[in-house]
User: What shape does this take?
Amino acid sequence: MFFALIIQSAIIVASIAVGWHLLAFTDVLAIMYGASIALVNSGMLVRRWYVGLYQYHCDGERHLKSFHRSSMERFFVVGIMFAVGFGLMDLANLELFAGFIVGQLAWALSMLLAQRLF
Assistant: This one.
């Protein structure tokens, strides 16, 4: 999963480099922030996966609580980051969402590539 996170980062950097030449600085900044939201979301998922490798348990209820807590943590962190981007930073809405979508699609593509390569 760490390799997938590296691939996601590379895809995001490549897409930002392309956008850097085509768009204005404020738009690229919004795309970068949206992509960083997706990257933080994926990073939290990878961290939870890594912790789960060493905290092995067979209790179904405990496993479900851990899954629920992880999903709620990621949901609130993403929501707070969106609120900061829209409210405090006053970034362009469409570009911020576009960056987030590019980041999420990069995560899906990187997971597919990581499974094919390893």
Remarks:
- Residues 26 and 96 are 10 Å apart (CA to CA).
- The two ends are 11 Å apart (CA to CA).
- The helical segments are 2-22, 25-54, 60-88, 93-117.
- The chain has a mean pLDDT of 91.
